[in-house]
Design a protein that fits this description.
Helices cover 50% and strands 9% of the residues. It is α+β, with helices and mostly antiparallel strands. The protein has a 5-stranded antiparallel beta sheet with strand order 3-2-1-5-4. Helix 3 packs antiparallel against helix 4.
Amino acid sequence: MPRQPAPTPARRAVTQLDHRLEAVTGHDIDTLWTYRDRGALDEPHAQLVDRHRTLTNAQIGVTFYLKLLNRLTTGEFPVDGALFVRIDRTVDQLEVATEARDAAVQEVLAALEPIEAATAAPTPDAPPLSTDDRAALLAIAGGAKLHEHLLTGRVSVTASSGIRIPYPQMQQLERAGLIVRDTSHPVHAGQPVFLTDAGRAALLDARRTPTTHPPTSPARPSASPSTPAKRR
C-alpha cells in the first residue's frame, strides 16, 4: 500500500499561543506576519514571529494526521490487516508530528516570555503614534531615501513603494528617534532612511497602535492601512 504523503500547509493554522502573541503585541497574527515580511520588527519580535510560523506549520501536521486517523476509523474502509497497518502507521506519524509541535511550542515560549516580562514592566507614558506617522514608518520600513534636488534645493522623502513622505513629518520622526538617516551618502544622491529600534517598537506598542488591522498594499501616509481578510 502506498505511503501516505506528508501534509502540505494549505492555510494558516490556529495555535495554542496565538492569543498570547496578540495580547503582548496588541496586534493579530496576520498583522505580525505582515510586519515581519516588511522588516518592521525589531530582532526579538522578528525571532518570535519566525518561531510562531514554525509552530503553525507543526500544528498543520498534527491536524493532518489526526484527521487521517479519524477517517480510517469511520468505517469507510474494509476492516482487515491492511487497515490495521495504516492505522498503526498513522498513529506513529501523529506522535512524531505532536512531538515536533510541542518542541515548537517551547521555542515560541522561549522567545515570548522575555517580551511579556518587558511589556509588564512599567514604562514612561509616550505620546500616541498618529495614523499618518504609523503609515510613514511602515513605508520607511520597506526602504526610503531622502533626496535634495540640485537645482531647486527641494527636499523630498520617497519610499521604495513610491510613497512620498512630507519632509517636515520625516524631521519630526527623526527628532523623536524613530528613524535615522545614513549621512555617509550625499543628500543629492539620496540618503537612505531607516527605522530605529524605537521606531520598530512604536509600530508594535499596543498603547500607541490600538488598531489590530495589518497594512496591505502601500497607501498614502494620510490613509490608514486597509483591513485584511479574516484569518481562518
